[in-house]
Give the backbone structure.
Amino acid sequence: MTYRAETLYEAVGGYEALQRLCTTFYDNVLADPLLAPVFADFSRTHVEHVAVWLAEVFGGPAQFTAALGGHQALLHRHTGLSITEEQRLRWMELMTAAVERELPGDSLLHRKFLEYFDWGTQIARDVSNIPVGEDLGDPGPTPRWGWDGLA
């Protein structure tokens, strides 16, 4: 019988692995002519915040909710960005390359991560077309993503 980690967070190797993934990904995003304009106000703390978000989403500590404002704050950070479908698809291409490079060589783990990113980038694209400051309503708690998708 093969052991399968209980959470994607555990399977990937925890926060340090997510931080490496985010660093590799954002280094490529900032060099990409299509995506760099979306990140015009980028700061290196963004990498850390995304790693903390992913840790929570994939079953690790709930630090994004506790310290960075949770799901509502994340959605608000995407308002007004006007992300296009072309930019979303390029984001997915760069994240796929980062996942393949930085995460353990487990095809199921890769697929689960990329399913989450596909789902999440569609939400980010949709929210990005809402004007900054507009009431988004209550999006609920930070989503959790596991071996069976959205929990």
